[in-house]
Records
---
Amino acid sequence: MHPNKEITWSELVHFNDKQKEAQQSVKDYKYTLYGGAMGGGKSYWLRWTLVRLLLEYHQATGQKGIRVGLFCEDYPSLKDRQVSKIQNEFPSWLGQLSKGDMEYVLRPEYGSGVIALRNLDDASKYASSEFAAIGVDEITKNLKVVFDMLRTRMRWKGIGNTKFLAGTNPGSIGHAWVKKIWMDKEF
């Protein structure tokens, strides 16, 4: 699509019904978990929802350079599930991927927002970071202490509706704590 053509979100992003339901949850809640079996489009939903949040934050505040984080448990997973997909899915008129910085930056006319692509091999390295939204792909591959630390990074001046998004398959080391919070609603 050409950048001079007015396009709708649904023309740009092709969410299935479950992804649309998760998108509505992001509007209604601060924390959203998109779970399910493999092949449900969780990683796709995460990256495109972060783009949408960057666009909405810019439109609402006028701020440029707002940062969100997209995390995976390690760099090989981040490259396989997110970086390689961003290269193929995101149109060139929307922004640019910098592999050196591991960041996707929206073009200035869209607010110059940044998706920082990061790994969680040592979550404490983000102790001073700030993100308007955080997305974690395969959150059950992490211990609860990682979740607890990341949610303290959800802050951005002028943005009161920071968001935490997560995608997951059942199982792995974090299954019990994720189920307890999101399914059993034991906070």
---
Amino acid sequence: FLNGQPVTWYPYHAPIPYVQQAHLDIQHQFPFDLFVDAGYVWTRGIHLPYWRDMNQVPQNLLGPGNAQLNRPYPQYAGINANMEDGISNYDALQLTVKRNFSHGLMFTANYTWSKALDTETISNWYGTNSWIVQRSYEPFANYGLGDLDMPQIFNGDFVWQLPFGAGRHFESHNSALNYIMGGWQLSSIFQVHSGTPFTPLMGTSN
């Protein structure tokens, strides 16, 4: 009934996916209302869903001609299988410097230095080329930088109460000037980060 068509297959005894996590954190309060936090984060995913074509043409049979005839089960097209054997690893150093509002200034700055590795995601994961696997019979050939890997991330925010106007450092004796210049503040949210990986693809059987 399904000859010549793509089919989907689920292993009968599929393992349960799970994630292991560890977090080590050190915090310290410094003078001038400065708070510093340093942490290490480790995450590992095991038995993750890993879809791939189990009817892929073997590498040694790639070449010109009818690729369908070289599939392990030529009576079917692709056999889309969820093998539940994917893995992922994430390691990160996270640093935070924070100052609570004092003397007209508050800020938070975060820096993350990390690496994300897995077997499944690629740069076109959410596009038309999702679930691209180099060799279905050698799934860990795909293990490498994950689609969301950003080695360096720097972000934060600040609020600065400008020192002009009544009750501020630069107070004027002119009430009109105090009214115009007083009560202002600057604030911002910012983020700078590395780019994500790029994976070139070539969709051909030869």
